[in-house]
Amino acid sequence: MECRVGCAACCIAITISSPIPGMPNGKPAGVPCPQLTSDYRCQLFGKPERPAVCSGFHADEDTCGSTNEKAFELLRELEESTLPDTAYGKTHSL
């Protein structure tokens, strides 16, 4: 599956715990990556300085669905389901 141009759900919805350009302490969920352009494209795509965590993410039906809205929904669910049990005072029962 190819990424949908202008989606950027993976660059906004999820936490990136490793350093990324412009955010040396990583990026919290819900915060756009500083490398996103105004039309939601990655300024680092295809460049060697693009973080491994980003280049390692590949669009597929399970994480991106068939619409941008579904991608945000699926990635938010993934984000929440992978939080440590004590994060934000929540406990998870999966």
What Rg, in angstroms, do the CA atoms define?
A: 14 Å
What is the approximate shape? globular
Helix content: 25-40%
Q: Look at the helices and sheets and give the structural class.
A: mainly alpha
Characterize the structure shown.
The chain has 94 residues and is mostly helical. The protein is 28% helix and 0% strand. The chain has four helices and no strands. The protein has helices spanning 9-12, 52-55, 61-64, 68-81. The termini are far apart.
Quick recap:
The chain has four helices and no strands.
Which descriptors apply to this entry?
single chain, mainly alpha, globular, 94 residues, 28% helix, 4 helices
Would you spell out the secondary-structure blueprint of this structure?
Blueprint: H1 9-12, H2 52-55, H3 61-64, H4 68-81
